[in-house]
Amino acid sequence: MRRALLFALLITTAAAQGAQNADRPAITGVAFARFYTTKPAEAQKFYGDTLGYKRIEANGMWLYPVNHLQWIEILTSPPPPDPNVRMAAVAFTTRNAAALERYLAAHGVKAEEPLKKGEFGVRDPEGNLVIFVQSGSNKLVAHAPPSPDAASRRIIHVGFIVRDAAKEDAFWRELLGFRPYWHGGKTADRTDWQSVQVPDGTDWLEYMLNASPSPTLQQAGVDDHFSLGVAKMADAVAQLEKNKCEGPNCTKTQIGRDGKVQLNLYDPDRTRVEFMEFVPVQEPCCSPITGSSPGPEENK
Q1: DSSP tag of 163
Q2: d(Cα 161, Cα 159) in Å, to the nearest integer?
Q3: What span, in angstroms and rounded, lies between the C-alpha atoms of 111 and 109?
Q4: Which end of the chain, N or C, is less packed with Cβ atoms under 10 Å?
Q5: Could you tell me the pTM of the whole model?
Q6: Tell me: the pLDDT tens digits for 131-187?
Q7: 108 touches 48 (CB < 8 A)
């Protein structure tokens, strides 16, 4: 009898979860990452010259299209509210922004920035500004010509400091349907990074765990980051060289704990830009990668 009741409970829970996911519009990938800069001229040199992206100006921000659905946003004003934090927002693409806004409101998450021109913004449990973008709604990015000198044409993940993974999971995994992708640490007996993949694509969000309670600008810049995907790191290194990338980091590749080849650059405000190959070249530490690897194609 107890087994029958337990089975019925499991079926009911699964059905409820399935109904919730069915009500939630598709979330297909990273749309953009937004950062403050206190050094505009140097930021333009980094994002425009070194990374090779053509700049668009809109609504007081600098936009650097990576492809037709993804871009980087740089705020030259106002100054960052926290002197040691440069990340301002992360954004994900959805196929129905209006329906997703209603879905979140029905589950107690009201928009801080109501839907306008295909975008709306909410706060996650730790106060991070999260923006959802209707696929293709940013016409300036959608119609921007490709940047011929771009070292990458794909954003594959964003990451930020997380203090309470369980609290964040309630929002990202339980409510939005993000799926476990990989977790690992600097040593095998700890978890410093926990990645959750978008429910309807291959991009992911990386929880950066165990950060200092009061991180320096350098420490926050390492954790609050975004990642540019490449098929072969050698091609990215060669393009960075053509773009006159300066410093030892321009060629300093390594294999990360997830088994993927990486290269880290830092903008003038110490925000980390992590180049990463799409597919692991060796077995990852700590846990298997449970989702599909991203590739050069945009998530639509």
Answers
A1: S
A2: 7
A3: 7
A4: N
A5: 0.92
A6: 999 999 999 999 999 999 999 999 999 999 999 999 999 999 999 999 999 999 999
A7: no
